[in-house]
Amino acid sequence: MAKSDDCVHILQGLLVFGNVVIGMCGIALTAECIYVVSNPHGAYPLLKATENSDIHAAAWIGIFVGLALFALSILGIIGVIKASRTLLLVYIILMLITFAFEMASCITAATHQDSLTPNVFLKQMLERYQKSEPNNNSDNEVTKTWNELMLQNHCCGVNGPSDWQEYTSAFRLTHSDADYPWPRACCVLDAKGLPVNLDGCKLGVSGYYNSNGCYDAISGPVNAHAWGVAWFGFAILCWTFCVLLGTMFYWSGIEY
Amino acid sequence: CRGCSGGSTPSTAPPRLLPAAQVGPRPALTQEELEGVTTASTFVLDQPRCVFDDYGNAVIWLVVALEKDASTFNNSAGPGTPETAFQSFPEPVRAYMTLNATLGSYPCPKPAGDITVLRVGSETSCAKDESRPTCNGPLPGPGPYRVKFLALEGSVPVAETAWSAPITLRAAKSPGSIPTAGSGHSAGMIAITTILSILLAILLAGLVAMLVFCGSDSCGSSTFSKQEAVSVRRYNTHHVYDQPAARL
């Protein structure tokens, strides 16, 4: 009898520890998702213009899942200590529902990250940058965002300045190829915002123009957000799985 | 001789024209590492350094023609005339002349480290200006084009390079041709989906098993029973043979 008593206490201790970790992770997940939702990175207008804001849906789900995990972990601790079948049954069922929601959020975040290929941004940039009759405000936003991106990150286009030569674009309709092989924002600018050497920039002499593409600067923060939501959620779910299995085993051993 | 008629050689005949001397090398796209060596309407040549050194008095012109019209160009066509005006290129003008310079613009030898190039097609301000027939305007199509340098003293061609190899400019595609369909799912996303689905399935199966097998009391007593006082009740046995029936 003493041995089974020890087993009970060990299992209870493990379950309480597991629930404490789940509670803390729930708070961390909520904090991280609030950060993702409220702190859009510089390229966010480009994401909005692609009408693909799955990462935000995933982050909103993450906020509520995090709070639910925290509340349920407290319920779980109480249920384990009291060895109450009802409380633990409620806990298990609610945790399974939360598990399903968090699973949806992780998969959405991971899929969203996959869908943002360079071609998506390339097509959007060519069709909307410096569009002469902007359809709506988002075209102006796209132009402004690209100008800021190219100035701050010293980059040009998505893959490089050759994007402007390989494809026709809204920009090309209003700016002749001979005067503007690529936009002025691709030139190295001095403190006043004028090209250091305009002929050097038009020729493409290295040092007077930005030769690398902006895709890395865009995808870096986007990927960081997506990975944060997707993989942290995945880790929490793996831990939750173990705790839930332990709770089910504990529940089945409680006397009615 | 005065009064002669039917004379063989008029005294005021112009001197016989000598063909222009061939100097080399032929013009070529620059070998420098430039992003804009060819664009949709411009291209960049190396300057003709140390090529026309024997012709210090000449003016060096660049002749640009479509590849199919290069062989029909006549060296005696003058620059700045309607027959060689840029604004009428390529119809009806078959070849235009532009980028005139004296030898002083191309000092020999070329200083090491300097980028000495000519950008053909860079002047957009005079592209439609008929009063500037020698405009270095943007080329009207992807070509292919051939170019050569021609040195003129006055209006007499004295030296020329061979025609260059055909130069084709870049043709731009429409952005509608960019494929934006999803490139498939990455390994990470597939891993997350499969693993989480399996975990959820195990949990649901566990829940069902838990409820079915342990919904009633059947699981409880064997494992984690609470400590209960084990009391043995005294059991008085009444043997039937102890009854007074034995008195009979």
From TrEMBL, chain A:
Organism: Rhodinocichla rosea
Gene Ontology CC annotation, any one: membrane
Protein name: Tetraspanin
Record field: transmembrane: 12-37, 57-81, 88-110, 229-251
InterPro entries the record matches: Tetraspanin/Peripherin, Tetraspanin_animals, Tetraspanin_EC2_sf
Assembly and interaction partners: Heterodimer with uroplakin-3A (UPK3A) or uroplakin-3B (UPK3B).
Record's keyword annotation contains rRNA-binding: no
Subcellular location: Membrane
Lineage, broadest ranks: Eukaryota, Metazoa, Chordata, Craniata, Vertebrata
Record's keyword terms, sorted: Membrane, Transmembrane, Transmembrane helix
Pfam families cross-referenced by the UniProt entry: Tetraspanin (PF00335)
TrEMBL record, chain B:
Transmembrane intervals: 190-213
Alphabetical keyword list: Membrane, Transmembrane, Transmembrane helix
Cellular component, GO, one term: membrane
Secretion signal, residue range per the UniProt entry: none
Keyword Membrane: yes
PANTHER family named in the record: UROPLAKIN III, UROPLAKIN-3B-LIKE PROTEIN 1-RELATED
Official protein name in the record: UPK3B protein
Lineage of producing organism: Eukaryota, Metazoa, Chordata, Craniata, Vertebrata
